[in-house]
Design goal:
Elements lengths: L1 E5 L6 H12 L2 E4 H11 L2 H12 L5 H12 L8 E4 L5 H13 L4 E8 L2 H9 L1 E4 L5 E3 L19 E2 L6 H15 L3 H5 L4 E5 L4 H12 L6
Parallel strand pairs: 1-3, 1-4, 2-3, 4-8
Antiparallel strand pairs: 5-6, 5-7
Helix pairs in contact: 1-9, 2-3, 4-5, 6-7
The structure holds BIS(adenosine)-5'-pentaphosphate.
């Protein structure tokens, strides 16, 4: 099964993708995570992407589509893929069709996380992750059970993203509205889009996604 989680910055794509990975053995393909890893490693892609990401603009279509193809090639044919933050433009949507077809894969669902934009700035600016395992938390909505200790791996170091400040978030939202939201009709025309209320509690969002995927999920 191959699915796209679509929604603006802070909609909960990463949060829900992590849950599907943990519960159903799917693989999360987050172009944001791949780009951040490239920036950290100082690769040529990372050097090109760093300033663009800090401004909240989109990295080139060719770079992100190449990253997705490379990542899919590391997966067994039976492993389900969750595209998180990709595609983000019409060119990327077209590229994904080719990437999947070349690997004998088919897109099953596009799940749109429907959110109230006003809430997103608070969500994003309060977000932090475990520096060791990457588990996501939030100052108000999801604190570690023991203060300062990661629930998943016991790590005690946490980090925040450099692009999670209000000014950059506003640019990221504008990019979403201008370039990403317009790709929805491509998938609506194929009848594979389901809208989920992304403002509901995280567990309710997960349950709604699991209902959509019920027939294909590994329990
Ligand atoms: P990327 O890393 O993809 O960031 P994004 O799309 O802006 O998405 P976020 O990670 O900010 O949000 P999310 O929806 O995953 O929300 P999360 O689950 O963390 O991209 C970063 C940059 O990389 C881009 O700006 C661009 O420069 C570049 N890039 C990446 N992909 C690209 C591409 N394809 N093309 C070109 N450039 C690309 O949730 C947010 C917070 O809210 C968390 O703290 C969470 O705990 C909380 N939360 C989640 N759900 C709920 C809920 N239901 N209720 C309450 N709180 C919730």
């Amino acid at each position: 099964m191959n699915i796209i989680l679509l929604g603006p910055p802070g909609a909960g794509k990463g949060t829900q993708a992590q849950r599907l990975v943990e519960r159903h053995g799917m693989r999360q393909l987050s172009t944001g995570d791949m780009l951040r890893a490239a920036v950290k490693a100082g690769t040529p892609v990372g050097l090109q992407a760093k300033a663009v990401m800090e401004r909240g603009e989109l990295v080139s279509d060719a770079i992100v589509s190449a990253l997705i193809g490379e990542e899919l090639d590391t997966m067994g044919p039976a492993a389900g893929a969750i595209f998180d933050g990709y595609p983000r433009t019409a060119a990327q949507a077209e590229a994904l069709d080719g990437i999947l077809a070349a690997r004998g894969r088919k897109l099953g669902h596009v799940i749109e996380l429907d959110v109230d934009e006003d809430a997103l700035v608070a969500r994003i600016t309060g977000r932090f992750t475990c520096a060791t395992c990457g588990k996501g938390y939030h100052d108000s909505f999801e604190q570690p059970r023991a203060p300062g200790v990661c629930d998943k791996c016991g790590g005690t170091e946490f980090k925040r993203r450099p692009d999670d400040n209000e000014e950059t978030v506003r640019t990221r939202l504008a990019e979403y509205r201008a370039k990403t939201a317009p790709i929805l009709p491509i998938y609506e025309a194929r009848g594979i889009v389901t809208r989920v209320n992304g403002m509901a509690e995280m567990d309710h969002v997960t349950a709604a996604i699991e209902r959509i995927l019920a027939k294909e999920l590994i329990p």
